[in-house]
Amino acid sequence: MRAAGRLAQAAAGLLAVWLLASCSVVEKGTGVLAGAGKISESDRQAIVKTSSAVRSTFSDITEEEEYYIGRGVAALVLAQFPVYHNDVLTRYVNTLGQSVAAFSGRPETYAGYHFAVLDSGEINALAAPGGFIFVTRGLLRRCTNEEMLAAVLAHEIGHVAAKHGLQSIKKSRLIDAFKVIGQQAAERYGPEQLSQLTAIFEGALGDVVDTLILRGYDRKYEYEADELGVKYSVAAGFAPRGLPDFLKILVGVGGTEQGKGWFKTHPSAADRLERANSAVATAGAAAKVLAARTQRFQRNTKGV
Asked: What is the pLDDT of residues 15-28, one digit of tens each?
C-alpha cells in the first residue's frame, strides 16, 4: 500500500480513536485493518501507540493553556465577525461584564475576562474558553434594559466558569493529539506526508471550532449556563427577570430570525424560558429594574 494511502488510513484511525475513546475498539479495529491488508503491522502499532499516548497525556488543561486556546478560538471568531468600533459602547459592555464576572463562580481567569461587540446584525452572543466573550449589535438592539444585557453576559460567563468550551474540545482530544501526532509523524513520514497529515488535522480542528462557536454548545450546557446566568446576575444586584424577559423577546422574533445567530446556536427560546422562570423562582431575589440603570443602558447603546 502506498505511503499516502497508509497515511490516510492512519489519520482515519486516529480520528476514530478520538470519537470512540476505547482501547478495545482501537485494538480490534486496527487488527482487522491490518489483517485485511489495509494497513501494515507497523502502521497498526503506530496507531495504537499514538492513541494510548493521546489518552495518557490528555491531562487537565491549565488556566494558561485555556487562555491560549480561547485566544485562538477568539481569533477565528473575529475573522468572521469584525469588531464594532465604538469606544463608549465597548467600555460600557466591559464594565458591565466585569461587574457580573466578579460575582460569578469564577471571578478570575488567567488573563481576565475580555468583552467585545461584534459588528453583526445577527442576534447572538459567544463565549470562548478563558474568558473571551462577544455580543453582537443585533443582540444589543433587542435588549431594552441593563438587566437583560447583564443576564446575557452572565449566561456567557457561565459557559466560561463551567468550562463548557474546554469540555467540548476535550471530547475530540485534538489539543494533545496534535503534539503526539506531530512527534510520531516526524519519525515515520517524510515532509510531504507530514504536510498532508497536518492538513488533515488542521481541518479537524476547524470542524471542532465550527461546532463550538457557530453551531453552539450542547443543549445541557446551554441550560446550565441559563441557570448560572440568573444566579450570577442576581448576585451582582440585578433584577432576576433579565434573562426570562430577554427570552420572551426572542420568542417573539423567532419566526423571522430562525436559523440565524442565537437561534442557530441555542435551544429554542420557548424551551429555555420555562427553565429560566424556574431559576428565577429558585433565586428568590426581589431586586427591581432601576430607572437609572435603564437610562445608563440607553445612553451607552444609543445608535447601535
From this structure: 444 433 445 555 66
SS3 content of the chain, % helix, strand, coil (to 5): 70, 5, 25
CA distances from 40 to 1, 4, 11, 14, 109 (A): 8, 13, 14, 15, 46
Phi, psi of 145 (to 5 degrees): -155, 175
Among 139, 150, 161, which residue's Cα sits nearest to residue 225? 161
Please check whether residue 222 is in contact with residue 272, taking contact to mean a CB–CB distance below 8 angstroms: yes
- Other C-beta atoms lying within 10 Å of the C-beta of residue 209: 19
Give percent above pLDDT 90 in the chain.
38
Query: What residue type is assigned to position 248 of the chain?
Result: K
Query: CA separation (Å) from 210 to 74, 77, 152, 218?
Result: 12, 10, 21, 13
Beta bridge partners of 135: 117, 125
CA distance 214 to 261: 8
Q: What is the pTM of this model?
A: 0.72
Q: At what angle do helices 164-172 and 63-80 cross, to 10 degrees?
A: 90
Question: At residue 78, does pLDDT exceed 50?
Answer: yes
Report which residue type is found at 65. E
Q: How far apart are CA 61 and CA 42, in angstroms?
A: 31
Do residues 244 and 277 lie in contact, with contact meaning Cβ atoms separated by under 8 Å? yes
Residue 174 per-residue DSSP state: H
Element (H, E) at 132: strand 132-136
Contact 1, 40 (CB under 8 A): yes
CA distance 168 to 163: 9
